[in-house]
Amino acid sequence: MSTNTFLSSLKNDPAFANVWQELKWRELVHVSTDEAELEKLLGGEPITYYCGFDPTAPSLHLGNLVQLLTMRRLQLAGHKPLALVGGSTGLVGDPRPTAERTMNTKETVAEWVGYLQGQVQRFLDFDGANAARMVNNLDWTAPMNVLDFLRDVGKHFRVGTMIKKDIVASRLNSDEGISYAEFSYQILQGMDYLELFRQYGCVLQTGGSDQWGNLTSGTDLIRKVEGKSVHALGTPLITNADGTKFGKSEGNAIWLDAAMCSPYAMYQFWLNTADADVVQRLKVFTFRSKAEIEELERAVAERPHTREAQRALAYDVTSIVHGAEATDKVIAASAALFGQGELSVLDESTLVAATAELPSAEIGNGSLNIIELLVASGLAASNSAARRTVAEGGAYVNNEKITDPDTVISADGLLHGKYLLMRRGKRTLAMVVAKP
């Protein structure tokens, strides 16, 4: 069981007759094999399904979160997940639309496999009757020599079909072209599905709709080799209503690793969701019921200024990824920055994350006069401007109003021994870091 008690408490919506109907309502079905057969399959006895994650970075990101939560929903419906972290496919990388991926060393990929396995384990239940299982495709590709690969697997793929796949076709028509290594990726993924079908009876693969060509390479291979029909489900690519790319914040991906994207940064990302996008995000990224989401949809229409839907979304997703305790710290930090809570109760990592985007300055430990601090932090352009700010009652240090221009902040006043949160007026903030 996941150690994240918030995630462990979440359930599918009982208002739906089956999980397929819930996936459809949540707009998680963009493309699939036989819909009627899939609904019947998912509404019957437990099946085994899988989703793959390639270690092309040291962390998963929000695009992967769509798959992880889809896997979670299927597991809650009684089905058995296989989480594949691709130790072999990660060495090649699936084709990108524009150019070849940079190949990472075997040592780096192996290290990243471990990171991603740890992340995936947080989202699935590895105990019980329908326990998840972690698999690594390096286990069955590493022992295979190239001749066996070509004879036993490659012979079932037709080049004409392979080059018609959207991603391959776009690369063939580009100046970059495509290498044989990336061209062969769909064969490797197809072999994964065949292997999991043989070993575990796996009959469904899920993934992003941009991976549809790779997903169907597996269904086609199993049909040719085993004479059996299996299924694939492609979730939609998440985009913003204005057409911009989803999952980016100031040019950086929103990673699931707290060291790469803090809980504070993640919370703020979801809190800033546009009204036009928030209901769809609630469907995809939370386990809130249809009734709850419809109520939040009414709130967006009738009282958008309250941002109820955004706050619900930010709380749920941050709690799913990092736990409710981390989310509560984030909310406390947000309030404390503007004087609505105690800064002293914030742990250092939360304080640093919450103030990461603020203007900052370093100052010597012996230079903690309020006038110098206001100038050093950029909150006042000159000593005289700083004195006016103090005289007008607009100077704050760690949320304490400073009324005497001769005030010197003692070392005891430093948060965690080195930080001072400076504020001018109600909302203009800066951070000062005292050097040892």
Automatic annotation (TrEMBL):
GO terms for cellular component: cytosol. ATP binds at residue 248. One of its GO terms (biological process) is tyrosyl-tRNA aminoacylation. SMART domains: S4. SUPFAM superfamilies: Alpha-L RNA-binding motif, Nucleotidylyl transferase. InterPro entries: aa-tRNA-synth_I_CS, aa-tRNA-synth_Ic, Rossmann-like_a/b/a_fold, S4_RNA-bd, S4_RNA-bd_sf, SYY-like_C, Tyr-tRNA-ligase, Tyr-tRNA-ligase_bac-type. It comes from the Bacteria. It is found in: Cytoplasm. L-tyrosine binds at residues 50, 185, 189. It catalyses: tRNA(Tyr) + L-tyrosine + ATP = L-tyrosyl-tRNA(Tyr) + AMP + diphosphate + H(+). One of its GO terms (molecular function) is RNA binding. Catalyzes the attachment of tyrosine to tRNA(Tyr) in a two-step reaction: tyrosine is first activated by ATP to form Tyr-AMP and then transferred to the acceptor end of tRNA(Tyr). Belongs to the class-I aminoacyl-tRNA synthetase family. TyrS type 1 subfamily. This is Tyrosine--tRNA ligase. The gene is tyrS.
